[in-house]
Design a protein that fits this description.
Layout: H1 2-12, E1 16-19, E2 22-25, H2 38-44, H3 49-59, H4 69-84, E3 88-100, E4 105-110, E5 113-114, E6 118-119, E7 126-134, E8 151-155, H5 161-169, E9 175-179, E10 199-202, H6 204-215, E11 220-226, E12 229-242, E13 253-259, H7 269-286, E14 294-300, H8 308-315, H9 319-324, E15 325-331, E16 348-352, H10 359-370, E17 379-381, H11 387-392, E18 397-402, H12 421-439
Parallel strand pairs: 7-8, 8-9, 9-10, 13-14, 13-15, 15-18, 16-17
Antiparallel strand pairs: 1-2, 3-12, 4-5, 4-11, 6-10, 7-11, 12-14, 16-18
The structure holds ligand BES and zinc ion.
Length: 467
Amino acid sequence: MKKKKVVSVLLTAGLVLSVNGVYAQGNGGTPNSNAASAFDNKIIKKISADNMYNTIKLLSEQPRTAGTPGELIGAQYIKSQFEKYGYETELQSFPIYDVVRDNAKGVVEIGGQNLNPYVFSGSFSGEVTADLVNVGKALAGTVPDTVKGKIALIERGDITFVEKIQNVMEKGAVGVIMYNNTGTSNAFGQASYGQDIPAVGITRAQGSALVEQLKSGPLTAKLKVSGSGLVEKQSYNVIAKMKPQKNKDTGQIVMVGAHHDSVPNGPGANDDASGVSAVLELARVMSNMPIDTELRFVTFGSEEKGLLGSYHYASTLSDAEADKIVAHFQMDMIGSKDAGGDNKANGLIMYTIDGKKNTVTDLASAAGARTALGEVVPYGQLGRSDHQPFHELGIPAALFIHSPLEPWYHTPADTIDKIDKNKLQETAEIVGAAVYQIARPDTPALIHSRVAPKPVDYDFENRPPGA
Ligand code: BES
Ligand code: ZN
């Protein structure tokens, strides 16, 4: 019994161990270290690329833009599939704010002259007439109290537009006129939800002239914004949980994610119906397996609007719950015929936020060598997907993607006919085998990344995704 435990420790470590001088994997002495173990086979033999392909076909019938009926239809379908497989499911809604600016018009009238300003994206619509107060760059702690009830004249630069507006609003400003820090354009700037004062941009030359004029006396401006604002919509995360048997519970959680929203002008077959299809297929395959670790499958909304769904989900985790999550596997764009170029591992790469190996990359790279792909998977450094918020919580996380990207990325041509079943199969097998290595009852609990499996030999690649 004791001996068995030692073997399983090494198994968790993804190591090839030497038995009497013969290299063998810890699975009962299989002579080929790259062979799938009996444990792997329990998962990978059941994974069907046809199932994944059909899911992508269904989801990519229409765009799934965040906050639109297309997203909700997709999310409800995903939830119903999770339910069918026996998971505890939740449709977690969160508000998002879409910019309205079709008829946006801005006026800044000073001394009878209109500066024809640019309306900040998302600016509140309203009209104020008040004195201008030069507040420099409106950095925190530098905004004078004299801006109360006045219009803040702000220089662009150093901190975000939203932060600048916030800093002057906190001092009671009733409007924002921001001048550029370079060039001749006035077209820049954005405001955020709750910033209920008009905000516009003017050129550097216009702003510098106002700064000069203010030195010799007060200036009154009429600032008016119309046809602009932010409209609240609902977006969704779909969450599926499977708890282990009570007497077999390590208290740990392993997560597998993808994003179900698409960009507005495309059906998002590869980005990211492909990832969703693998999440659903792995949920199906794992639903009847013995586990000692909670499985959590999540598809996020509003990834394309700035990782909003995954940040929202992360914000709902208590510290105690986040501490239990030992790994997050994110699949985003895992099925394109035309991605990956001539790179090894069929172009598959695991991107981490810090460019370092972690539990996820160690387990998955080793799994690559034991499954359909038949080779280790390299890793690289990149954000741009939902692994980011998990990394920020200190959870080992990686993005699985074929890089460089296909030419159809974020275009209406991201359609089902560009999907390669082989790539889907390879990636799902890798993630499935790695997840099951953590979750199956015979392997000991991971104590986070500190005693994470020892790295197998796989390389860092400086591979930009290309778009
Ligand atoms: N699927 C992409 C992620 C991606 C794009 C990874 C390019 C690697 C290379 C994702 O859906 C996406 O488009 N993300 C946005 C960033 C996000 C914060 C809005 C992007 O990369 O522009
Ligand atoms: Zn994506």
